[in-house]
Design brief:
4 domains, Immunoglobulin-like, seven-stranded mixed beta sheet, single chain, mainly beta, 34 strands, 500 residues, 2% helix, six-stranded mixed beta sheet
Length: 500
């Protein structure tokens, strides 16, 4: 759903001191100062955004102001998981932390400016977790993340870690649709000025992403940069939190341009090719990583942003059986932006049979208790007649059975026992499709890939080979996924039912 655009501004930085300290000037680019380490009473610890230290949001920064001139050295300012005892504090003075403490250090970006130091965790922290902030071997404060942070978290979609030529251009995306228009901001600690705007790039209309446009790109490599902890948006909630993974410059080489050649049945789309179906596109993209935004001018339900890396992708949902004008915006690893308008026509409603879950290594006897679950993820009834389910060594031909939209069937061996004596039983009413054998001598526990083939010979669904322990099935994250698969918990298979 799209929301009306409204002028949004970065939330003002407001601080609440927890210990008395004079207000001291902030000077950019100051070197570390010399002096004796302070005691906790000499430090004012404040948070951005403003919050009690025992109820911090998932994304925050801490600013330390010192009443005396300390030796501000980033390596000695740390944040640890949990509480530290007095004996553990003494160990912090050692040249190298003991392994038991080192594994509790939260990765954080630390920088200094005159009598201040900043500490920003590089990840959003879990709700309810407790932490200890230390300077040298001094405990500065104990802090806690609140249990119910209502601020939506937008994750960084671009660039991938270690693949930013400038360390300044970034894109963050989330589930909540929101509008951001020319919001001034400064990244820290690079002090890079610029603006945040909606979309993955200038002119892109995605309402689920925001991008940062720096005012200037430095000639030399910039230090790591963090986005604001919060960004004001027009989404009804007023703000989103941005994943605090730093943008870090890394030298990259441009990939050679590969001429776009589309297979039979595919049409050009962006720098790739697409097979147009009913409510979806099967997209083939060129080698190399790019951030893509795909939107339909007259169908606001299509607002997809994803990283294309040469692997097949599904883009959906699309309105069926109608002409569409698609706007495809791409951002490459070097920051180049390209936008194209493509016209397609979707097909009438189709059936889409998909291998959704596989139990190749049951607790019960093998291969008798193995099974493969199929789901019709399409809009019309599908027929299994003449379809073949094959692994590397053999195949099973499926009988004439109809599967309604959203329907599921369990393909099993002739001797399959549905009682649930060893593994979870199929949900009541599950249609069992019995075949003489699955695979050549059963499904391999070491993980053989599977193919579901139409009577015409077209491969309609594939499933990767996963080596699993007894009683663990492998399932798709969702039926439309081409590459996301998970292994169930022991006894967590759901024959005949969706995972969620």
């Amino acid at each position: 759903m799209r929301t009306a655009h409204a002028l949004a501004t970065v939330l003002p930085v407001v601080f609440a001191a927890v210990a008395c300290a004079p207000e001291l000037p902030l000077r950019e680019g100051a070197p570390p100062l010399d002096g004796a380490p302070p005691g906790a009473a000499d430090v004012a610890l404040v948070s951005e955004p403003v919050a009690p230290l025992d109820a911090l949001p998932r994304v925050f920064r801490l600013r330390l102001r010192f009443g005396t001139a300390p030796a501000l050295s980033p390596p000695v300012l740390r944040i640890f998981e949990g509480d530290l005892s007095d004996a553990q504090l003494l160990l912090l003075a050692a040249p190298e932390l003991p392994a038991t403490l080192a594994e509790r250090v939260v990765p954080a970006l630390v920088w200094t400016a005159e009598d201040e130091a900043w500490l920003a965790p590089k990840t959003a922290l879990p709700a309810g977790a407790r932490y200890t902030v230390t300077y040298g071997r001094e405990r500065i404060a104990s802090v806690r993340v609140r249990d119910d942070d209502p601020t939506p978290l937008w994750m960084r979609a671009w660039p991938p870690s270690g693949k930013s030529p400038t360390g300044l251009v970034g894109v963050w995306c989330g589930d909540v649709a929101a509008a951001v228009e020319a919001t001034p901001a400064t990244l820290e600690p690079s002090r890079a000025a610029g603006v945040f705007r909606s979309g993955v790039a200038p002119g892109d209309g995605s309402m689920h992403c925001v991008h940062f446009e720096p005012s200037a790109i430095p000639a030399n490599e910039a230090p790591p940069s963090l986005p604001p902890a919060r960004l004001a948006v027009d989404d009804g909630n007023g703000a989103v939190a941005l994943e605090p993974a730093p943008l870090e410059a890394a030298p990259l080489e441009a990939l050679p341009v590969v001429p776009r050649v589309c297979e039979s049945g595919f049409v050009p789309l962006g720098s790739g090719c697409a097979l147009v179906q009913d409510d979806r596109l099967l997209l083939q993209t060129p080698p190399g990583e790019e951030l893509w935004s795909v939107q339909a001018v007259d169908a606001p339900e299509l607002d997809r942003v994803f990283v294309a890396n040469g692997s097949p992708l599904l883009v959906w949902p699309l309105p069926v059986d109608r002409p569409l004008e698609l706007v495809v915006t791409r951002v490459d690893a070097l920051g180049g932006i390209a936008a194209r308008t493509e016209r397609i026509r979707t097909r009438p409603p189709m059936a889409h049979l998909v291998i959704d879950e596989v139990l190749a290594n049951p607790v019960g006897p093998e291969p008798r208790q193995e099974w493969v679950e199929l789901v019709n993820d399409g809009l019309v009834t599908a027929s299994l007649e003449g379809m073949r389910l094959a692994d590397v060594g053999g195949e099973a031909t499926l009988p004439k059975i109809s599967v309604p939209p959203g329907g599921r069937v369990l393909v099993v061996n002739d001797g399959y026992d549905p009682s649930g004596k060893w593994d979870p039983a199929p949900v009541p009413g599950t249609l069992l499709v019995r075949v003489p054998h699955l695979g050549k001598d059963g499904l391999s526990n070491d993980g053989e890939p599977l193919e579901l083939t139409a009577a015409s010979g077209e491969v309609v669904s594939t499933f990767p080979g996963f080596k699993t322990k007894a009683g663990r099935s492998v399932y798709r994250v969702n039926p439309q996924s081409l590459s996301e698969f998970l292994t169930s918990a022991p006894g967590g298979s759901t024959p005949g039912a969706p995972k969620n």
